[in-house]
# Entry
Amino acid sequence: MAQVLTRFKSRSWRDRFAAWFEPSLVVVTVVPLVIGALLWMLGLRGAADALWIAATVAAFVPALYWMIATLVKGRAGVDLIAVLSLAGTLLVGEYLAGALVAVMLASGRALDAAAERRASRDLRALLEHAPRSARRRVGDDVQVIPLDRVAVDDVLVVATGEVVPVDGRILDPVAVLDESVLTGEPLQVERASGEPVRSGVVNAGDAFEMRAGATAADSTYAGIVRLAQQAGAENAPVVRLADRYAAWFLPLALLVAAVAYAWSGSAVRAVAVLVVATPCPLLLAAPVAIVSGLSRASRSGVVVRGGGALETLGHATTLLMDKTGTLTRGRPRVVDVVTAPGRDPAEMIRLAASVDQVSPHVLAEAIVSEALARGLELSAPADVAEQAGRGVSGTVGGHRVDVGKLPEALTAVDWGRTVVNRATLDSAAIAWIVLDGALAAAILLRDPLRRNAPRTIRRLRQAGLDRLVMLTGDRSEPAREVATVLGLDEVYAGQSPSDKVEAVRRERERAVTVMVGDGVNDAPALAAAAVGVAMGARGSTASSEAADIVLTGDRLDRLADAMDTARWSRRIAVQSAAVGMSLSLVAMIVAALGWLPPAAGALLQEGIDVAVIVNALRALRGNPALRVELTADTEALLHRFAGEHDTLRDTLALLRTAADGLAVRGGDPVALSAVEEAHRFLVDELLPHEQAEETELYPALAKPLGSPEATATMSRTHAEIQRLTIRIGNHLGVARAAGRIGPDQTDDLLACLYGLYALLQLHFRQEEENYFTLSDDGSEYAGAPGKSDSGTSVQP
# Structure
């Protein structure tokens, strides 16, 4: 590891020279261009021409060197056209055009050089997380030694919060580890004595001892660094748009000029052909469209490192993505609170959150967030104790509260076994609540799907991605559940960083491939893909540095925005270049026939350049066909109903609780009371919400969505919700008269309750995915939406 760091800290004289030369070239071309323009407006034409000539010559010399280097490699591209263009403008006296070409050439080379230097920054970012030393135990003495002195079979001590230095095996009875840096999964794991532990993971519990099984150079984290280095080195750049067109335009221009000279014997005609063949549509229009796309992308929270990445993204057809933090939120969330009979769910989560306030555990954080979101007032706990891998205990209001794993002295009762079964089916974690020594409640938590993920996946397919693949370090069951919900084409679970790189390589052999991730474990795969995209808001430094594109906000849908921007910008760039070159070709033919002298040809070429540049600037607006215009009132309605969803979702559990009680207890008065409570919720809270959506929100969405039919299926669902509510009410009317729910009613009432619970869960998700995500910020994201007086423009 130390050798890798040393190698990337040292730079050759060429690297140091390149680091200052390209930016300097931009300065020495831009400054004369700007000052010359000012002098020209003041009437000092001679001084202006002199400055523009200086800028042209300053770019011509390095361009000649780059052209020769390119030809030596067996390629001819824009560099060759640039040299001829710069020389041609000097010969015919088009000095302003020469200065413009010089600026575009210099700025393009500066961007390319910055991208080439990215590989070393990527590796240094990875190494920021790497440990530099280790604690080695020799007898009763613990010594801090350099990492490269760790030998196999050394006994090492890893303190709380430290990074495991090398691969090895646990010696203590249990170690609590945060493996998210390698797997991407947010939940901490326990490793028992004798189990393997990998370098790069973080000790999230008490200090533990381990036996080294490998040196630092042969351990997992060093392997990740090497993977990133190799992947970045082998990822050849895609041929740029201008180079592809230059491959045929240049020989054609030279051929027309040669034919004109051979046919007429006039060198003036040949020069005139070269003048109108000056490839500013390639050197100016195409880059302007791409740069405009970069600007538009940055306004929506997408940082693209260069035009090459945006161009490549524009014709990608395969997308690989991580699950945790990319398709899911990356943080556990409370999905339900199940209590023992007679316990209040709100009070149980309040007590649990009061104790969990002092714990840094990721599940504790989720429980506290849920309690605060419900508006519960937390109490200050006393006598708090936290046991790594077991949970937190403390005293709240005179009651002893334990939150965490089920104590060995207790066994799950009937309702507890139901919780365990449900957690297994839902791939959820359980935080048990023990109150004064008795099992009182269970909190189920899981990493939920991002609200806008399904809509984003549909948009990505519409943008031209025909193969969507998930790569995740998570288990197969939750990974396949997510893949099924989103309709992905392939899923690979239990993937190590090297597995992800291999998968990216396989896919890249078949198509232009994009990889999306957010953790250190994703960095090598991001470097291996044609385009790497990092979720920058919560992603690691390594993943952001290894990526070509960084989503600065915690918004997966911004990737779809980037795809739309890339394709639109590339379409405008191709259109500008094609139209410009076609006009130039017509002008070349006219010049070859002797009907267009060089001076007039230069003016005509300037007109062509201006026309195609103006057209290229259309990329700043984005594709108008893909925009949905929301008025301020409609956006306010979306925020209002999204907030109501968050409130109602917490109460939907009443339906399931009532059904579970009816199934277990039969139709006794307690079960009847639970069904009545669920029915009151439906009549007093849910149905008014659905009716307001029907009369206020859906009509407002008809115009931005294109037709009232866009909400027709949701309206039909509203009708079914009302029908089932009425049916439950009819059952209750019969049951109240008898004082209990009759056996002949039980089956149908269970079907209504369970069916309505499932229907509402699906209905809420559909509305959130299809409608509420039209709002720029969405209720699951922080930050204010971008608004104007006329409303908001968003992508569908």
In short: The longest strand covers residues 438-446.
